[in-house]
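Here comes just one.
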Amino acid sequence: MLVEFTVRNFRSLRDEQTLSFVASSDKSRAQTHCIETGVRNLPLLTRAAVIYGANASGKSNLIFALATMRNMVMQSMIMPEPVRAEQYTPFRLDASTSSEPTAVEVLLLLDGTRYHYGFSYDAQRIHDEWLVVYKKGTGKGQTWFDRSWNARTNEYEWAPFSTYFTGTKETWKQATRPNALFLTTAIQLNNEQMKPLWNWFLNEVAVLNWAGSGAALGIGKTLRRLEDADFKKRVLEVMRAADLHLADIQVEQQPGHQVEFKLEPGKPLEFSARDQEVPVVKYVHRVEGQDAVSFDSRFESFGTQRLLSYIGPLLDALENGRLLVIDEIDSSLHPMVVRFLLNLFHNPVVSTKGAQLWMTTHDSSLLDVELLRRDQYWFVEKDSQQASKLYPLTDFSPRKGEALEKAYLRARYGGVPSISSANLH
């Protein structure tokens, strides 16, 4: 489970910003909207975090930061240098930060053990990387490893490895390149102790962004599982519960082309195409007394297709207790459908393994104390220097019965666009 995510100097996020799933002392809806951790000094985590903000405020940049961290953990050993350099996107509107490292870190709770892991980097190298582990039943952290780049000596300084951290540590250390992560290197060289942390990045988080590859990830995960009759039944149940009148969903493999592009610095763009079968989705509708009729994606509503792309990762998260991150969840979806999805995460019968949802939205109707706890709402807005600031609703100490939507639209909490008149003469 994600406890906290922190980022600094990434795109519009100049200063350190932290999204926290740690529940407040509020007891309302704790049994449905919170997860009991079994950790004395961290008793409850929230099941969802909903982030509001104006267009271009930085909501998506928080998600991109997590996705970038995940990408680097997974691929830092094999990334081509130009691709690795593209991961470095600092805040460029301040001369003091435009060449400073980006820093990211996560605090995770996995099977009762807390992992506090982070690193900083620029276009050339990893600057710092560290891991502190809090074993179940103990409050004291074990610093398994800690390294930092010394620009004066042009080498890394390593703190002593923890005695609790076992294995061929010196071999892993020597094999770690300046532009690769020690975590990635050690895992590739058969480290077992850090497998839970590695597995969280690999399997326990899914990021869906319709503007990027996340959309393909979502629809692909859904389509691959539709051959499972039980899974398909659950998908149709969700679609029908959302008032989408589908009799069936069929996937046909049809001849098609896979086009691949290759771009290398100093070389012209290369592309190749190969024949292969591609999945085509058919949405089957039936009116009583009539034969079933199927539509392909050209004739099916965008909202239906969007929801189908969400369902695979959503059911996977609910079944396995994973984190699902969705940017602009309300795009093409009715507010009541979004409420329905939120309620799935807060239904203790459906969500039994600690699944979490991190979402961004512009839908102010979701600001409802009957839907979510006050500690589940967050806002992002830019300051006078165009740097994004993330802050929780609880900073404003709203009353239990406060009309949150009305207060938000009146700019009491910030996170709304400042609209002025335009001179179009």
